[in-house]
Amino acid sequence: MSRLEKVLAALAVLPFGLGFTASESRPGAEVVFSFADPEIVESSGLAVQNGLFATVNDSGDVGRVFTVDPADGSTVAVTSWDGEPEDVEAMSLLPGGDVLVGDIGDNLAQRDSVEVLRMPFGEDGSVDPATYELTYPDGPHDAEALLVHPGTGQVLVVAKEFIGRIYAAPKRLDPDRPNRMRLLGEVRPIATDGAFLPDGEAFVLRGYDTATFYRWPSLEEVGEIPLPDQEQGEGIAVDRDGAVFVSSEGQHSEVLRIALPRWLRSALEPKDPPGDGSGEGPTTDDGDPVTATDRDEPAEEIERPFWPWAVGGIVGVVVILVLVRALRPR
Predict the structure, then answer these.
(1) How many CB atoms lie within 10 A of CB 211?
(2) For residue 195, which of 163, 240, 148, 151 has the smallest C-alpha distance?
(3) Of 24, 133, 191, 270, which is most buried by a Cβ count within 10 Å?
(4) pLDDT score of 313
């Protein structure tokens, strides 16, 4: 078989594989609530604390954070700040209970620096947040995932690119000068959000269709799971009990609770003392480390339809025929 024939054969199989991936079963998901506020149109970041959820709109909105009661999806507080955000894309809880908002989007990769803002969680009205400027060591990047370690407060930014890269900010951010980040390694491509698990020993990055779990600080991949269909899934959050929630852009969009499979929960059990290596971390009333519980076991799986597999195959055949005709000796 010639090299050209091998390439064509690989291309012929690829669309069927993509279709098969699209048709695999998805994890069980529970609808927790829908955003009732018509001003929440592009939920691009998500955080959960003390039974309340917080979110921010994607680029184009003014500077504000919505705090939402999941009982009815109503907005109970809007925390705003002056200024004109460039492209707010993410948020993450800080160890003290405040929330860090990430103005880190850069679709054209042309910003000299990006910003993160420290905001009080759930406070209604205008505030004057502490603002920190971040720079990359290797030029501008577009990013939508902002993570904060629950024990150390370490701030991480993940570039939303086909080769995903994770960057760490200095442990102490200086509000008076740019804070140069350092590259830690490569992670999943096209990450739209991320969050640490409560013990600080692992974190999750989501894309539009899947979520990938990693150990911290080794960046060892633990496993990947498919996510339920969403209009444009861009938010993920983990609460103190280890429950995982995802959100999506779109007016009145739903926030879903994801059931983690048992094999993943078992693999995520901490190998070392929880927290930042000091043995300190969130615990239960009995003093045990906080982990996901059996209520994360999916009640059922949602089967995906057969048609994506078939459509993918048909498209692949058409592509191969066009390539063969174009490459035919003349």
Answers:
(1) 27
(2) 148
(3) 191
(4) 53
Structure token digits, residue 67: 């705090």
Cα–Cα distance for residue pair 275/270, rounded to 1 Å: 10
**Model pLDDT, residue 325:** 54
pLDDT tens digits, 126-161? 999 999 999 999 999 999 999 999 999 999 999 999
Q: Token pair for residue 8?
A: 């064509």
Contact by Cβ (8 Å): 228, 302 = yes
Tokens of 292: 């996901």
pTM of the full structure: 0.77
pLDDT at 299 over 80: no
Instruction: Specify the amino acid at residue 158.
Output: V
Residue labelled with tokens 């300190």: 280
1 compared with 79, residue with greater pLDDT: 79
Signed CA dihedral, 295, 45, 91, 53: sign only: negative
3-state helix, strand, coil in the chain (%, to 5): 15, 35, 50
**Residue 11 CA: distances (Å) to CA of 2, 222, 311, 313:** 14, 29, 15, 10
The mean per-residue pLDDT over the stretch 254-268 comes to: 96
Q: In 112-255, which ranges are continuous DSSP H helix?
A: none
Residue 27: what pLDDT? 57
CB count within 10 Å of CB 314 equals 13
Between CA 313 and CA 16 the distance in angstroms is: 5
Confirm if 42 and 61 have CB atoms less than 8 A apart.
Answer: yes
Please give the angle made by the CA atoms of 209, 214 and 217, to the nearest 5 degrees: 145
Q: What is the identity of the amino acid at 310?
A: A
Which amino acid would we find at residue 173?
L
Residues in the chain: 330
Three-state secondary-structure class, residue 247: strand
Residue 92 has pLDDT above 80, yes or no: yes
Q: Are 150 and 196 in contact (CB under 8 A)?
A: yes
- Residue 299 to residues 24, 26, 28, 30: CA-CA distances in angstroms? 17, 12, 7, 10
